[in-house]
Design a protein that fits this description.
Elements: H1 8-23, H2 27-32, E1 38-47, E2 53-64, E3 70-77, H3 82-98, E4 105-111, H4 119-133, E5 142-146, H5 152-166, H6 190-205, E6 214-218, H7 222-233, E7 237-243, E8 246-249, H8 256-266, E9 276-278, H9 280-283, E10 290-293, E11 312-314, H10 323-331, E12 335-337, H11 339-342, H12 345-358, H13 365-390, H14 394-413
Parallel strand pairs: 3-4, 3-5, 6-7, 6-10, 10-11, 11-12
Antiparallel strand pairs: 1-2, 2-4, 7-8, 8-9
Bound molecules: nicotinamide-adenine-dinucleotide.
Nicotinamide-adenine-dinucleotide is lined by residues 191, 218-224, 242-244, 280, 294-296, 316-318, 343, 346.
Length: 417
């Protein structure tokens, strides 16, 4: 989510400032939310496969835990910065609050290039990082999860390292695990499921019938490809899709299964039979009803926002719309379901995984999806109502709702000593 245009933590704090004045935030809570509760900075010496030792820098930022244990993913990337991790921890706090799950917000990051590391090197890095933060994480303290370039295998190593240090198995110390280690059914497509539930609820508000409506999906990875599946299930025609190699279009609609199959076979959506290739930037400007940005940050900018024709944007990606673009889209009456709400399905099912682990239960996919549906619809409606009450965009409404909930918890707890 790091912005190429500005410092992401400054952006997060600007959002806090504007929301604070919008909701007349309690000054003490406001003061406490201006900086993370705890920042861990750890040095990670790792023996590389060729025998030399390389020192990696890692962070865990725990932003706020007034509503419950800290929660947030761990990112492995060469461009990780402390400010990026601080921003992501702030946004996790708002995200958990907006869907009303009993968690605070955190994020972890290690500066490394996982694409150029062996599995064994990544395992040693993960175990050392876990050991260095072990005293500050745990099922009731801080529950990590996967993020960019970390996955269920990474979570398995964290679970094992943490459990070895404790002396007993603690599956609830981390989420996003494989099913065999206590992972939840439905986690792999939960972000997209939540995102399309939001798009469906937004369509209801606009009285837009979904049968025969059209959509474009930018990015065809986990969030994007599953979003296409769920849109198709609702009767929406997905006419365009893209990935890092290019974009495709078909007036009669792209079959989600065939598109994914083609991507898996060839590495890209480009070249799918029955589709034509279009310029990637054009995908965002197509005359469609719903746009799902599911790729990178800053894809809708001041340069292209004025050409966006979609009536609904449901932000599967984190930070796909710049603040300048937001202002243009607001003027053009585009209903944007903001990232902290639209992609909160992932953390919601992470929460459900934790609840199952704490109770030593394993639910069916239907049970998980039913609870996800309830949480997402409630969060959508609460954010929408807040935006109407305050006469602001849904992004500002969702921020107002979530920051107010965190501030209320802070006020009730009081300050010790
Ligand atoms: P992914 O790596 O599975 O997929 C990303 C896709 O984007 C790939 O298909 C890639 O080719 C494509 N892409 C990259 N650059 C592109 C470009 N310039 N134009 C078009 N497509 C491009 O990642 P993901 O897990 O699907 O995540 C996508 C976004 O959703 C990210 O912003 C991520 O932070 C956010 N998100 C994902 C989850 C989740 O559970 N997967 C949860 C919350 C937020």
């Amino acid at each position: 989510m790091s912005s190429k245009e500005s410092n992401p933590y400054e952006n997060a704090m600007k959002q806090l400032e504007s929301t604070a004045s919008l909701i007349k935030l309690d000054p003490a809570a406001h003061e406490m939310l201006k900086s993370p509760k705890r920042i861990l900075s750890v040095s990670l010496p790792i023996k590389m496969d060729d025998g030399h030792v390389k020192n990696f820098q890692g962070y865990r930022v725990q932003f706020n835990d007034a509503r419950g244990p800290f929660k947030g993913g761990i990112r492995y990337h060469p461009n990780v910065t402390l400010d990026e991790v601080k921003a992501l921890a702030t946004w996790m706090t708002w995200k958990c609050s907006v869907v009303d799950i009993p968690y605070g917000g955190a994020k972890g990051g290690v500066i490394c290039d996982p694409k150029n590391m062996s599995t064994a090197e990544k395992e040693r890095l993960t175990r050392r990082y876990t050991a260095m933060i072990a005293d500050f994480i745990g099922p009731y303290r801080d529950v990590p999860a996967p993020d960019v370039y970390t996955d269920s295998q990474t979570m398995s190593w964290i679970l094992d390292t943490y459990s070895q240090l404790k002396g007993y198995q603690v599956p609830e110390c981390v989420t996003g695990k494989p099913i065999a280690l206590g992972g939840s059914e439905g986690r792999n497509n939960s972000t997209a499921r939540g995102c399309i539930i939001c798009a469906r609820e937004a369509a209801k508000q606009l009285r837009l019938p979904l049968k025969g409506a059209t959509a474009a999906v930018q990015g065809y990875g986990n969030a994007g490809s599953w979003s296409a599946v769920f849109l198709q299930e609702l009767g929406v025609k997905v006419v365009a899709a893209s990935d890092s190699s290019g974009a495709i279009y078909s007036k009669s609609g792209l079959d989600s299964a065939k598109t994914l199959n083609h991507k898996e076979q060839t590495g890209s959506v480009v070249g799918l039979e029955g589709s034509e290739q279009i310029e990637p930037e054009k995908l965002l400007e197509l005359d469609v009803d719903i746009l799902v940005p599911a790729a990178l940050e800053n894809s809708i900018t001041a340069h292209n926002a004025g050409n966006v024709k979609a009536k609904i944007i449901s932000e599967a990606a984190n930070g796909p719309t710049t603040p300048e673009a937001d202002a243009i889209l607001e003027k053009n009456k585009v209903l944007i379901v903001p990232d902290i709400l639209a992609n909160a399905g992932g953390v919601t099912v992470s929460y459900l995984e934790w609840v199952q682990n704490l109770n030593r239960e394993h639910w069916t996919e239907d049970q998980v999806n039913e609870r996800l549906e309830q949480k997402m619809v409630a969060a959508f409606n609460a954010s929408y109502e807040m935006s109407k009450k305050l006469n602001v965009t849904m992004r500002s409404g969702a921020l107002a709702l979530s920051i107010k909930r965190v501030a209320d918890a802070i006020q009730l707890l009081g300050i010790w000593p």
